[in-house]
């Protein structure tokens, strides 16, 4: 655990200094609020942190803790009653006792008898206002190692099934597929009578019971889910840190050391270990077919400029391997990739250009924006793909024009009570010995100029 945390912190510092250098968010940058900077040369700091990241990541990665992926070559087959639980790679995210999974370094335990339980699996199976974006689904490669825009295997996205067919193992394992069984319930005759994920995902209902984009999350959902508890609660463990991140940390730090243009033999070995488990061919196949102008991932950019195709492919690998594990925002911030967010529209399944529009019952019929009782975006205003936040253009819908970002949001504001505690005059917060993070005021209002 100590090794992984150290490698993560070191990589964060190195990449933050690299991509935010010259701004108010880094010592010595324009409008940096900390006064004159007399510290160590920033390039030396970056070099130090990259070396620390690699040395600690290597010490952990060399222990060989990666779980085996037994998904095999039939990545489109459905394990109807026990989806993936015979597969150590899939199962490690859904075990009650994660001590049995060496790759999981730290996890939270739950226990019915002690009343320590959660409802995550209930939310996953019923929607819980979650879902992968279209942008994210497109990031995953096809099983030949090629991006969707370059692979003859890509079936398009006219249905959820098409979007998942012949794609890489991680998408097949960790995204819902139509009609798959979600538990192990059977009737007296031994016939299955439990819950199935529908062909037409619930995109219209109340937030707590809808799949907001139509692409359902699957990681962490065991075979019999919450039904053991009887009250829609569960005791599967919650993984917090796992060893695969060390491999990814090393690869990225190594590429950064080489200016984004090459990686060492050691980094290649770690990358091959991750890709082999995902049932993907050598990374050169992906790299040679990657066209950054066709990629929709914000990770293509740092500080408003495209990174090298090699560094982007490493970032793509990280994004797909760490799906649903809560590191994405951290990565986007340290890469300074959120500069690209200006009017970004969240998109989901292909609704109006597929048979999905005709697959719903009258009760759950899609009614496009602009019509009475609208419950989905319209073809006219938003195109074929579901735009879950473009249902109503009136009132206080701040999402109609998409997500926006400003530099101040790379850091959170320091709470005002800290200024009160450290001010010589509590009524004059500017007399504090500390300073507010750039772009945030000494009031309760939002970021300055946002």
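^ structure tokens above, recovered residues below v
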């Amino acid at each position: 655990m100590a090794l992984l945390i150290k490698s993560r912190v070191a990589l964060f510092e190195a990449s933050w200094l690299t991509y935010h250098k010259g701004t108010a968010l880094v010592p010595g940058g324009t409008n940096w609020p900390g006064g004159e900077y007399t510290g160590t040369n920033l390039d030396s700091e970056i070099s130090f942190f990259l070396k620390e990241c690699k040395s600690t990541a290597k010490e952990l990665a060399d222990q060989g803790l990666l779980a085996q992926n037994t998904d095999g070559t039939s990545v489109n087959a459905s394990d109807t009653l026990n989806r993936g639980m015979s597969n150590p790679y899939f199962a490690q995210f859904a075990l009650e006792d994660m001590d049995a999974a060496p790759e999981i370094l730290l996890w939270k335990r739950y226990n019915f008898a002690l009343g320590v339980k959660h409802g995550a699996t209930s939310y996953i199976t019923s929607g819980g206002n979650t879902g992968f974006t279209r942008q994210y689904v497109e990031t995953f490669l096809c099983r030949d190692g090629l991006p969707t825009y370059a692979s003859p295997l890509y079936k398009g996205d006219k249905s959820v099934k098409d979007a998942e067919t012949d794609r890489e193992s991680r998408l097949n394992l960790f995204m819902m597929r139509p009609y798959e069984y979600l538990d192990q319930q059977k009737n007296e005759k031994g016939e299955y009578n439990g819950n199935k994920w529908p062909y037409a995902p619930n995109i219209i209902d109340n937030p707590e019971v809808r799949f907001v984009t139509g692409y359902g999350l699957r990681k962490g959902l065991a075979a019999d889910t919450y039904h053991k508890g009887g009250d829609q609660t569960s005791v599967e463990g919650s993984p917090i840190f796992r060893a695969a991140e060390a491999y990814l940390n090393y690869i990225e730090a190594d590429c950064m050391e080489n200016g984004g243009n090459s990686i060492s033999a050691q980094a290649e070995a770690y990358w091959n270990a991750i890709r082999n488990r995902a049932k993907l061919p050598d990374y050169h196949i992906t790299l040679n077919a990657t066209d950054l102008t066709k990629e929709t991932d914000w990770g293509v950019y740092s500080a408003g400029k495209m990174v090298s195709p090699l560094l982007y492919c490493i970032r793509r690998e990280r994004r797909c391997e760490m799906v649903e594990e809560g590191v994405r925002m951290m990565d986007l911030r340290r890469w300074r990739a959120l500069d690209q967010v200006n009017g970004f529209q969240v998109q989901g399944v292909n609704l109006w250009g597929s048979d999905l529009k005709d697959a719903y019952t009258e009760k759950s019929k899609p009614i496009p924006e602009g019509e009475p009782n609208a419950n989905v975006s319209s073809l006219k205003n938003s195109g074929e793909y579901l735009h879950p936040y473009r249902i109503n253009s009136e009132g206080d819908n701040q999402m109609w024009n998409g997500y926006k970002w400003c530099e101040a949001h790379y850091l959170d504001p320091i709470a005002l009570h800290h200024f009160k505690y450290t001010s010589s005059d509590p009524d004059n917060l500017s007399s504090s010995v500390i300073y507010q993070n750039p772009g945030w005021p000494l009031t309760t209002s939002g970021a300055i100029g946002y």
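The domain at 2-66+243-340 is CATH 1.25.40.900 (Serine Threonine Protein Phosphatase 5, Tetratricopeptide repeat).
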